[in-house]
Every structure is written in C-alpha cells, then in structure tokens.
Specification:
- The protein has about 230 residues and is an all-alpha fold.
- It has one domain.
- It contains 9 helices and no strands.
C-alpha cells in the first residue's frame, strides 16, 4: 500500500534479498551477461572507432567531451534496459536480450535525468573543494565523500522510475530520494555487499560475473525496487 509520498511502506532484509536474487538468476544468467557484455562492447567500440578515424583524438579536449556525450546518449537507455530486465524478471515476465533496446524512445529524458543527478552529486565536491582552497586544508575535500555517497544512493532509482512509470524527471528524483531515505543505511549495506559480490566475480578471471551481474541487477533493480514501488 502506497503512502502519501507515493511509495510503499516497505522494508527489506539484506541477506534475504541476496538469497532471493541468487535463486532468481536461474535460467537468465546468459541473458544478463550478454546484455552487459554488449553494453561494454558498445562503449569501448565507439571509443576505438573514433581513435582509428581521428588519431589526434587523445589531445583534443573538445572531441573527447563530444565523445563522452555521444557515449552517454547511447549507453544510458541501454543500462536502464538492463535494469528493466531485472524488474520484469522479478515480476514473472519473460525477458529477452533485445529488451535492452526498449527505452531509446525516452533517450533525451533519461539523459537529462542522469545529467541532473550528476550535477547534484558534484555540487558537494565543488563546495568542499572551494572550502578546502579558502581554508587551505586539502583534507576537507575528503569530507565531500559522505554527501556524495548519500545523494548518489538517494537517486538510485531515478532513471528506472522514468522508464517504468513514465514520471517527469523531478518527480522521479523526488520519489527515489524519499523511498531510499526511508532505509538509507540498509541501501548502503546492500550496495556494499553487492559491490563485494561483483568484485569477487570480476577477480575470478571475470567468469564469476556470469553469476554476479544478474544477481546484483535482480537484487537492486528488481527485488528492492518492487518492494518500494510496485
């Protein structure tokens, strides 16, 4: 049942979420792994092709900025598509690799949402950097890690809410922030544990990513999302 802020009165257990996510990876590991592999291939492939066509690219700051913009436009709808694979799977819907391309009709909306979130994340860093220069205490910049982490976690579901519920950018940001704020420490704990799982998978010659990628996506973008917003 949704509260006045628009999300469910929910809670979750970190260990239970990870166990359930692991069970839900059965039968979909290859779909998630190939989706993520294609995502990485697109990002690296675009950079590689630009380097071949334009050898002086590495020294051209403007060209690098334009390339990052192009990559963002291409990549954001795709990573949202992978998040939605996780959500649809936990809802019991059939999923296919091609589903990661379903959200390019929302490209500009997703891009500007991601841009606005990024601006919010970098604001503390800029403010603390200015304070560090004025106070001549460089270590102050380290303190910016805490507000940056808080903001980044708070807006975790912004783009996914836009894809799933077609919300306006600010509405999606606020709904994500309010929902995550309810259990921020648990989100931090879950994110930390999922980060370890992903790292272990990557260190195991990358083979472990076949299990880690779908588990991480299903846990955060599927199970917890549904508890908060379905």
């Amino acid at each position: 049942m949704k509260n006045d802020d628009g999300f469910n009165d929910y809670d979750f257990d970190i260990g239970e979420v990870i166990r359930d996510a692991y069970e839900l990876t059965n039968g979909v590991k290859l779909t998630f792994f190939l989706s993520f592999l294609f995502y990485v291939f697109v990002i690296m492939g675009v950079s590689f092709l630009v380097g071949l066509v334009y050898p002086g690219f590495a020294e051209d700051k403007i060209s690098q900025a334009v390339l990052q913009l192009v990559i963002s436009v291409l990549a954001i709808p795709m990573i949202v598509g992978i998040q939605m694979l996780a959500l649809k799977h936990t809802r019991g819907e059939d999923i296919e690799f091609k589903d990661i391309f379903n959200y390019y009709n929302k490209t500009l909306k997703l891009f500007f949402a991601s841009l606005l979130v990024a601006i919010f994340i970098y604001i503390p860093l800029i403010l603390f950097a200015i304070l560090a220069v004025v106070a001549k205490i460089p270590v102050i910049i380290i303190l910016s890690i805490f507000p940056i982490l808080y903001i980044a976690l708070s807006y975790t579901y912004t783009t996914q809410l836009i894809a799933d519920k077609d919300l306006k950018i600010w509405d999606a940001m606020e709904l994500s922030r309010k929902a995550v704020k309810r259990h921020w420490l648990k989100f931090f704990g879950l994110g930390f544990m999922l980060g370890i799982i992903y790292l272990i998978g990557a260190l195991a010659l990358g083979i472990g990513l076949i299990w880690a990628i779908p588990l991480v996506m299903i846990a955060m973008s599927g199970i917890v999302y549904r508890k908060a917003f379905d």
